[in-house]
Structure prediction request, 432 residues.
Amino acid sequence: MRIFNRLESEVRGYIRSFPTIFSKAQNAVLTDESGQEYIDFLAGAGTLNYGHNNPVLKEAAIEYLMEDGIVHGLDMATSAKKHFLQTFEEHILKPRKLQYKVQFTGPTGTNAVEAAIKLARNATGRQSVISFTNGFHGVSLGSLALTGNRKFRDAAGTALNDVHRAPFAGYFGQNIDTIAMLDKLIVDPSSGVDLPAAVIVECVQGEGGLNVAGFNWLKKLEQLCQRHEILLIVDDIQAGCGRTGTFFSFEPAGIKPDIVTLSKSLSGYGLPMAILLMKPELDIWKPGQHNGTFRGNNLAFVTSAKAIETYWSDNKFQGAVQKKGQVIEAFLEKLVTSYPDAQLTRRGRGMMQGIACADPALADRITSIAFQNGLIIETSGGQDEVVKLLMPLTIESEKMLAGLDILEQAVAEAVNEKTGNEVEATNNEVTA
Prediction:
């Protein structure tokens, strides 16, 4: 690890949690230079929904490269882009009765979010945007202004303006109607909240701690936006591409956002790719008005189209993901009841679930022990208090159960350590 400590910036993060040098990966298993294997419950922070080195996608990429297919094409028309658009329309948009135009932004999620808020401001002529508590939308300045976590915001080095923070679903408890609160702020001329260009929301907050917006809450949010002529943006960068059990996380709520951002697992192979979906009437861009050198990653178009053809041409894959999600939910519910003194709660939806710990230090200890025992898993939430499960959607059932067993062992060990430390502290106080 010396070369990383000596040359790589101190900004590095995941390397500190998983201090080994990885050299190989296949589906849900990572292997380090010593040959040690780890079950992957991180999946590139949700970027590898179809696993590491998916053989079907790898074959498509290699074949394309061997035929000298265009890799970088700016926003020129290419065969790879044509095939992606045709495939996306046929297997994703049409079956869901969605009419969107597609904008290819820069290759990362924050690029898509920047384009979304820029488009909303241009389309409405209004400036402010409403985002939600615990939301995470990226760390470039426009996206960072929408992001709630102080850890990220403090690194901006400048003021983050033109955003009003509203309470997310359940932020004040399940009996508080936060949509009614937001509506009041919008209609009250003395609230200090200007009529916004857009509201941006995650249906399941990934980095924010796996907080779930209920379907009724999302419907009410859509109705609020329609009532006040506010554009509704769904950030589906982490929760999309099947992670919650349907291709889009908003599908079960029956809503149709004005704008949708997609990235992370969109390419299917871990290649950088991001798009913006917008209702046709919102496509008011002038040519070249919003661009990016790497908005034409044609190799990503190839693997993305292949992933969609392979996994989303029928409902088999979606059904399998939903069944795995049910297994995860049952496991986590049992885990919560097995350790009542640890004050654990289950959060999330589909294959985007986890356990929230009343003590953030417990969550950190659980993930550390899990890594020592061969499981890669991270924390999220405002205080890193949530142990978050993001395994590949393609993970074999046996491998998933093995990873869950390691997680349970880590929870047991961490809880026992915590209990032992508390007892020792109590005894020391009595002795003193």
Notes: The longest helix spans residues 397-431.
